[in-house]
């Protein structure tokens, strides 16, 4: 991490579908407090739900009582969300290669099953990293666009929109 100041909230939940809503609700409150727009909160809600659902469905077999850790790291200009489990891992890059790119021309009724959650996460978030040591950790970031608009207004004289 850089020297930028931040605050952090951590949660640990059972790897069960009924706890996904609890994490989503907490995330909505955190992003609202940080000043994210309604649309950005909805995008992050979908991405977080996909990451949690993947962990619930794929990380642990039905016999295991697994845990999912969720961290929210709030910087001045972005939020970083870390979802990790210690269950079964997978090769993210290989999965993307196997699925191939999605096309706007594809009929929604015939989209390939599997991997759509990863596609949604990458589409909705500004930065996504997947680590697969001892389980899977997904780190995803969303920049606070209001800060960029304010910066643009301040820099209007030189016509530059600068991302902080």
TrEMBL record:
Keyword DNA-binding: no
Residue ranges annotated for the Histidine kinase/HSP90-like ATPase domain, each copy included: 13-142
Keywords: ATP-binding, Kinase, Nucleotide-binding, Serine/threonine-protein kinase, Transferase
EC number per UniProt: 2.7.11.1
GO molecular function annotations of the record: ATP binding; protein serine/threonine kinase activity; sigma factor antagonist activity
Top-rank taxon: Bacteria
Enzyme class: transferase
Catalytic activity, reaction form: L-seryl-[protein] + ATP = O-phospho-L-seryl-[protein] + ADP + H(+); L-threonyl-[protein] + ATP = O-phospho-L-threonyl-[protein] + ADP + H(+)
SUPFAM superfamilies with a match to the protein in the record: ATPase domain of HSP90 chaperone/DNA topoisomerase II/histidine kinase (SSF55874)
UniProt cross-references to NCBIfam families, sorted A to Z: PRK04069.1, rsbW_low_gc
Family membership noted in the UniProt record: Belongs to the anti-sigma-factor family.
Biological role stated in the UniProt entry: Negative regulator of sigma-B activity. Phosphorylates and inactivates its specific antagonist protein, RsbV. Upon phosphorylation of RsbV, RsbW is released and binds to sigma-B, thereby blocking its ability to form an RNA polymerase holoenzyme (E-sigma-B).
Official protein name in the record: Serine-protein kinase RsbW
Source organism of this protein record: Abyssicoccus albus
Upper classification of the organism: Bacteria, Bacillati, Bacillota, Bacilli, Bacillales
């Amino acid at each position: 991490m850089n020297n930028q100041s931040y605050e952090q909230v951590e949660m640990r939940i059972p790897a069960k579908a009924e706890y996904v809503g609890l994490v989503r609700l907490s995330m909505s409150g955190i992003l609202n407090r940080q000043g994210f727009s309604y649309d950005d909160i909805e995008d992050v809600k979908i991405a977080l739900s996909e990451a949690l659902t993947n962990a619930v469905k794929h990380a642990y077999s039905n016999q295991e009582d697994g845990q999912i850790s969720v961290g929210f790291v709030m910087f001045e200009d972005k939020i970083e969300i870390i979802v990790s489990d210690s269950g079964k891992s997978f090769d993210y890059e290989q999965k993307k290669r196997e699925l191939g790119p999605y096309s706007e021309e594809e009929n929604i009724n015939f989209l390939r099953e599997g991997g759509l959650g990863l596609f949604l996460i990458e589409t909705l978030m500004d930065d996504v990293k997947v680590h697969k040591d001892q389980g899977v950790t997904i780190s995803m970031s969303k920049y606070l666009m209001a800060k960029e608009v304010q910066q643009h207004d301040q820099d209007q004289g030189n016509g530059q929109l600068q991302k902080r």
